[in-house]
Amino acid sequence: MEKIKVTLSIVLPHIISATILLVTSLIFKINSLEFSRFDIFISSLIGTIVTILGFLITIIAIILGLIQTRIVKYISSNDTYNLLSKSFLSPILEGTLLVIVCFYISTIIKIDNSYILKGWILYILQFILVAFVIDIIKICWVLVSIFKEVSKEAGEEYKPNSKDVEEGKEQDFINNNDEHVS
């Protein structure tokens, strides 16, 4: 059941993206788009994608840095951690491919100071962009569910000593290795 859930989680964004691509191509029948200032759009898109990729890599570095802490040990005992660990590769690859496609568009397709996107490159851009956005939303959803699990665990099992709270001592959930560890 776990393998099916993880596989579905990886494949589903691509199925949704392909469905959106198919529906929009059948309804709108757009074979090309022409922009007069498409270079500004492509520059903004590349900047946004690279920023999101930077955040994803930072999240991975933070999680790897916390690997020995109580939170990660608790999370790794649940199936959400497996889903999270399998979810990072796809958006990183999609984002990198999207940046490459955007660079290709910005350097090759320029004709008389206006960009004309022909059908196949337009469809590739749309497919990768939608899959990337869906994967980012999926990662955010998984991180929020992990946060809820950790908050629930902290609220149920970790009760700070009331004397420590009254004395103003800081309560550390992340690296607390005392008797409250389960």
Q: Brief overview, please?
A:
With 182 residues, this protein is mainly alpha-helical. It contains 7 helices and 3 strands.
Q: Care to describe what's here?
A:
With 182 residues, the chain is mainly alpha-helical. It has one domain. Helices cover 75% and strands 6% of the residues. It has helices spanning 2-28, 38-65, 70-76, 79-87, 89-108, 119-157, 162-167, and strands at 32-35, 110-111, 114-118. Strands 1-3-2 form a three-stranded antiparallel sheet. Strand 2 (110-111) and strand 3 (114-118) form a beta hairpin. Helix 1 packs across helix 4 (79-87), helix 1 (2-28) packs antiparallel against helix 6 (119-157) and helix 4 runs antiparallel to helix 6. It is elongated and about 70 Å long. Mean pLDDT is 77; it is low at 178-182.
List the keywords.
182 residues; mainly alpha; disordered C terminus; 3-stranded antiparallel beta sheet; 75% helix; elongated
Total DSSP E strands = 3
Radius of gyration: 22 Å
> What structural category arises from helix and sheet content?
mainly alpha
Low-confidence stretches: 178-182
Average pLDDT, rounded to a whole number, is 77
Q: β content, as a range?
A: 5-15%
Could you give a short account of the major beta sheet? Answer: 3 strands, antiparallel
Oligomer: single chain
Shape: elongated
Tally of discrete structural domains: 1
Which strand order does the major sheet show? 1-3-2
User: H/E series, N to C?
Assistant: HEHHHHEEHH
The span between the termini is: 26 Å
Instruction: Give the helix proportion (percent range).
Output: over 70%
Number of helices: 7
